Amino acid sequence: MDMMRRGSLFVLSSPSGAGKTTLARRLIEEDANISMSVSVTTREARPGEIDGEDYTFVDQARFDELVSQDALIEWAQVFGNCYGTPKATVFEKLTSGRDVLFDIDWQGAQQLRQHAGQDVISIFVLPPSRDELENRLMSRGQDDSEVVAKRMAAASNEISHWAEYDYVIVNRDVDESAAQLKSIVEASRLHRERQLGLAEFVREMVD
Ligand code: 5GP
Predict the structure, then answer these.
(1) Whose CA is nearest to atom 17 of ligand 1?
(2) Which atom of ligand 1 is nearest to the CA of 79?
(3) The CATH classification of domain 9-37+97-206, taken from the options 3.10.450.50, 3.20.20.10, 3.20.20.80, 3.40.50.300
(4) Which of 36, 39, 49, 73 is the best mutation target for the ligand 1 pocket, counting ligand atoms within 8 Å of the beta carbon and taking the most?
(5) What is the DSSP string of 160-183?
(6) Which ranges of the chain does DSSP label H, i.e. alpha helix?
(7) Which helix (H) or strand (E) holds 36?
(8) What pTM, to 2 d.p., does this model score?
(9) Can you tell me the distance from the alpha carbon of 181 to that of 23, in angstroms, rounded to the nearest whole number?
(10) pLDDT of 84-138, one tens digit each?
């Protein structure tokens, strides 16, 4: 019997540079039943980023329009730019029983918990140390040094929200962390309340 499962919202947060994006990509590649929520943002695309895939890049006027149309589940300002999660595609996936992965900050995670409560499984990714975080931000080479300094300052703020999350991964080794993330997703799917039709399945078995 193919039991229907209500889609879950997996939220991944971390200070930037902790390896969250790599972990998210690995999970999406290896798990056909989970897909990434593509956010809209007013920030400039980085080299190599694809519009509509990494983000949907919009100007401030378009972002404001989406907010006023109530088209975003959550939105927040991060590093002076606006980021938000579009409602339409996310709801479509969830109602068809598919899981969605959100790479969003603590402000977005708080808003998602308010909207979707028990369907939200949140995971915080910590870097192995502050020095390592700084190294990763610098070696990424995508942002200038002023931006790196700003992000280091913001890291402490983001990390201060770690205890609001259900699970915490310390990203010492990317393979190990990817396996841990996969375990969290798989265990969450087996949660009694997330397996719709389970009571009926068991009733049929024992009757
Ligand atoms: P970046 O500019 O490095 O891609 O992302 C900066 C921060 O914004 C990251 O912490 C990322 O998780 C967060 N972020 C990306 N999309 C969203 C979104 O739709 N909503 C919220 N609240 N944060 C987001």
Answers:
(1) 104
(2) 6
(3) 3.40.50.300
(4) 39
(5) TTGGGSSEEEE-SSHHHHHHHHHH
(6) 20-30, 60-68, 87-95, 106-116, 130-140, 145-159, 174-189, 198-206
(7) strand 34-36
(8) 0.91
(9) 8
(10) 999 988 888 888 889 999 999 999 999 999 988 888 999 999 999 999 998 888 8
Q: What is the pLDDT of residues 60-94, one digit of tens each?
A: 999 999 999 999 999 999 988 999 999 988 888 88
Q: Give the domain ranges of the chain.
A: 9-37+97-206
- How far, in Å, from the CA of 148 to the mean position of ligand 1? 15
- Kindly list the protein residues whose Cβ atom lies closer than 6 A to any atom of ligand 1: 16, 39, 43, 74, 76, 78, 83-85, 103-105, 107-108
